[in-house]
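Task: encode each sequence below as C-alpha cells.

Item 1
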Amino acid sequence: MDLLTPELFGFAALIIVSGLLAGFLAGLFGIGGGAILVPVFYQMLTIADVSEAVRMHVAVGTSLAIIAATSLRSFVSHRAYGQMNDALLKVFIVAVPAGALFASAVTASISGASLRAIFATIAIVIAIRLLSGRLTFSLGDSLPGTFGRSVVGFLIGLLSALMGIGGGVLTNTFMTLYNRPMKEAVSTSAAVGVLIAVPGLFGYVWAGWGAAALPPFSLGFVNVLAAIIVVPVTLLMAPVGVAMAHRLPERSMRIGFGLFLLVVSARFFYSLI
C-alpha cells in the first residue's frame, strides 16, 4: 500500500485546515478537536485503503496524539487566566487517566457505536438547554462530592478515549449542568484534555503494537506522520482561541458551545448510518 497517492495530497491539505480549526476550538472551548480530526483521519485512511479492521483505531489513536499536544498548549494558556476549578481537578487527576487507560486496554475488542449514539443524544439535549435562555434544567448548584466526581471523571476518561476526543465536551457539559460559569468550565476542560490524551496516547500505542495491516509510519494505533503534520498547526491556533474565550460574553460562549454540540452530535449520528 502506498500512502503517497495524488488523492492523499488533497487530504493532507484538508488535515492542515482541520488542524487549524481543531487548535482554535481547543483554545475557545477547552476541547481537544477530536470531533473534527477523527472523521478526517478516517476518510484519509479509507482513501489510502487501510484495512477496515484497524482504520477507526488508527484515526482515534492519532487524534489522541494530537490532542495531547494541543491540550497541553491550551492548558498552559488557560492557566494564566486563573479560572480553573482546582478542587475538581484534584479528584480528576486520578480518575480521568484511569478511565482513559481502561479504554485503551479494551479498544481492540469494543465497538463505540452504542456509546456514540448515547453521547450524541445527550449532547443534543444539552445543546438545546444552552441555546435556549428559557430552559433552566440543571442537576444542582454544587458539584458532587469526591465519590461522584471520581465516577464522572472515570467515565469522562473512558468515553473520551474510546471516541478519540479530548474530554472537553463531556467536562463542559458536566460542569454547566451544575451551573458552573462557562469560562471556568472551559478552562478546567483544557486541563482534563491533558489527563485524557497523554495516557490515552501511550495506551493506543501499546494496544496496537504489532497489529496487522497498520499503515506506514505507525506506532501501534498512532500514525506518526499525520501527527507530525497536524501538531504544529494546532499549537499555533490554540492561543488564539484562548484569547477569544476570555473576551467573549458568557451568553455568547454558551451559544457557541451549544452550536458546536449540535455539529458533533450530527457527526456521531452520521457515523452510525
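Item 2
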Amino acid sequence: MKVFDRSILAEIGRTALLIAVALTLILTAVSMVRLLGTVAAGDLPSDLYLPYLPWAISEKLPLIVTLSAFAATLLVMQRWVRDSEWAVWRALGVSRWRLAVPVLGLGMVLALGLALLTTWLVPFAEQQKDRLKAAAQARDETQTVAPGIFRESKDGHRVLFVAPRGEETVGLFFMRQWQAGRQMIVVADGARVENRDDGKWVVLASGARYEEGASPLAFRVIEFREQALWVTPPKPVSEVQRVRAVATPSLWQMAHEGHRAAAGELVQRFGLPFAAVMLMVFALPLAEAEPRTVRGVTLFVALLVFFAYVNLLSLAQAYVVRGRTSFAVGFWAPHLLFLRCWCLFISGA
C-alpha cells in the first residue's frame, strides 16, 4: 500500500504544481491589465504600479491553490480510470474508501498551508495595498503634474498643464477649472510652488484669468502680475484598517466582542482550508463518472461545484455580517451542506 500512496500523491502533487503555476501566470497577466487601467484612470500613480502588483496577486493565491488541488485530483483520477489503472488497483484489493486515505492526508497538509495563507499572507497583502493607496491619496496635485502633459485632477473638475523651465519654477502655466457649471481658464507665464502655514500654494506670475459669464460666449478677463492659488491639502490618512486587513489574532478579539464583520471574515479565512479538503475528496467519485458521460462534461460540472462552494462561503459570510445567523452556523453550514451533497453523490454513483 505504500507504493499505492506514493504513486497517487506524487502524481497529484506534480499536476497541482503545474496547474498552480499556469493559473498564477494567468492571474498575473489579468492583474497587470487591470492595474494599467487603474493607473490610466489616475487612481494609482504610475510609480506605485510595480510595488502594488505582487500584493494584488497574493490575495488571490488561496483560491488558486484550492482550485489547483481540486483540478489535479480530478485530472489524475480521470487518467487512472481512462487508462484502466484504477481497475488494476481495484483488482488488487484497493477499495474506494482506501483511495480516499492518501488524498485526505494530502488535503489535510494542504489545509494547513492554506490556513497560513488566509490568516497571515492575505491580511498582510491587504495591509500593504492599503499603505500604497494611502500614499497615493496623500499626494496633492502639484506632485502628480508632469511638465508637458495635460493632467486631470481626481475629481475631474480641473485640468493642468505646465511647461518646464527650472527645478523650482515652471514656464507656461495653464489651468481649466469647472465650478458651479461654469468654467474658468487661468494662463500665466510662470509659476512656483510655496509651502505656507495654511498649506501649499501655487504662485502665478504675469497671467490672466478668464471666467465664464451667464452666457456661453461671455467671459470676464482679469489680468494680474502675481496671483496665488491654494492647493487643497490631502485628507489625513485614517488609521482605521479594514476588516480584511486586520491580523487574525486581533480579528478573533473583535469577533469575541461582537463585531459581526470580523466574525464574517473569520468564516472566510478558516472556511477555505475546509473547502479544499472537501473538494479533493469530492473529486474521487466525480472522476469515476467520466466513462459514462460525454468527454468534458465532468470538468464543466467540477467548475460548477467549485464556484458553488466558494459562493456558499461568501453567502455564509454575508449572513454572519448582517446578523442573520451566528458564527457557528455560518461557519459549518456550507461544509455540512456540501458533505450531504457528497454523500448523495456517492450513494448514486
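Check on item 2: DSSP finds ten helices and six strands in the chain. Confidence is low (pLDDT under 50) at residues 234-241.
End of task.
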